[in-house]
Structure formats: C-alpha cells, structure tokens
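# step 3/5: fold
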Amino acid sequence: MSVTTHETKWRLLVGAAPLIGVAFFAWAAAQGESEVARSSMARAILAAIAALGAVVAWWTARQLRASAALPVSRASALAQSGELAGLVALHGRARALPDAEPLVSPNGELCLWFRTGTPPRDSTRPFLLVDDSGECVVLPANADITGHVPVPAGVGWRSGRGRARPPAPECLLRNDDPVHVTGRFVAASPEALVLQSQAGSLAQHGLLLPVIAAPGPGQPLRVRIGSDDGEGGVFGMLAVVDSLVLLVASSLVAWAMLVEG
C-alpha cells in the first residue's frame, strides 16, 4: 500500500486562494472600484487561481481518503506476506512502553513526547500506538510531528533575584492522545528488534512488536497528534467552492469576449 503524504498548510492556502480573490473583488466593489471586477484580465486571473485551487483541493481530498488508516493487525499481516510496500498510515491511541520510566517534560508535565525551547528540542523516547487490533512501536526521533497544541504555562519558578518567571511553553503528547502516524511499517521480526535497539531506550526491553519508523534517510516519520476526522471534508468543500468560482469567472470572461467581439 502506497500513501502519499501532504503538507496541509500550503495546500490549504492554495485551496483557499480563490475565496481570497472573491473577497478582494467584493472589497474593491465596496470601495467604488467596480472596474476591477469588470476587468477581463482580473477575471481570467481569478479563473486560473480557481482552477489551480480546485485541482489541489480535489487531489488532497482523494489522498486523504486513500491514506485512511489501516488497523495494526492488518498492516502486520500485509507486511508479513510481502504485500505492504511504501508508506502506511496508522491511527490509534498513544501509550507508554511496558515498564518504561515516566517521561517528564522540562516544565514537570507527565507525557510520552514533548517539544520545548527555542530552537525547539524534541524528546526521542519511543511510545506505543494502540488500536483495537493490536499495537506497534513508534520511533519519533527526527519525526515531523504536527497537530499538537501548546500547553498553558504553569506555575512560575523563582529566579536568582527572587522574581517569578513562567516556564517556557511546551507541546506535549500525553497518554491516550489520538495519533495518526505515516511511515514505514516493519512487522514483528529481527529487523524490528534492530530498529528498536537503535532507539537506545528499547535495548533492554526487546519487545517483539511491529515498528513504524522513518521511511528512509532524509524522509521523516510523520506524526499528527489529534484526529484527522473532517480534514478530507474541508478540502472536498474547498474543491466544490473553487469549481464554482472557476465556472463563474470563466463564464464572465467568455461573455466579455463575445460582447467585445
């Protein structure tokens, strides 16, 4: 199963660009600049932007549907049979490794992963992804982790001069948080044990569990904290709206050309 990941931010910007263009036309009309909206060149530019936005939004919505998460047990069966190639997406809940020492962030928060400081510093301790069908080890070192929210600053500590300062904001993955992980899946095997041992803290555990890790050198594991529910619907809605903008703008351009002709 091959899954192509996407960078949501820039695709969302491209998909929303036609709406920004329509808003600009409305603002120009409200300011008495109606000739802007009547310009064939401006309408043609809006139609081109709408066409690009519709293509990007439709493609992204399809990719999100195609990358629907596999159950861990299904991914393991496909990997063992040799039918699993490329990337795989898994969705479940984050849990701590068995008998693992508690991980505490610099601000004293109990968690499974944290990001703090400027430049940001991430923890690298592996954790489990668990769903109704099984569990696998996630190796987050050098992963691209998104979707988290900053934890509100807690109680301040006293500096050397006796003044209280709030701790630096942190992003955390907590126990039982939903996670969506895209990477290379390795079934429970000697290779999975090697990957676990390379993570350092797993060397003593020797967990015979499947692993999901980075696809390869320079290709980070992608972890999204929180649910992906509704993201495909957002891009689908943008695709519909962009198509309508394209239809209207191109029709106005064609009408202007006929009238001028």
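# step 4/5: annotate
The CA atoms of residues 71 and 149 lie 26 Å apart.
# step 5/5: archive (pending)
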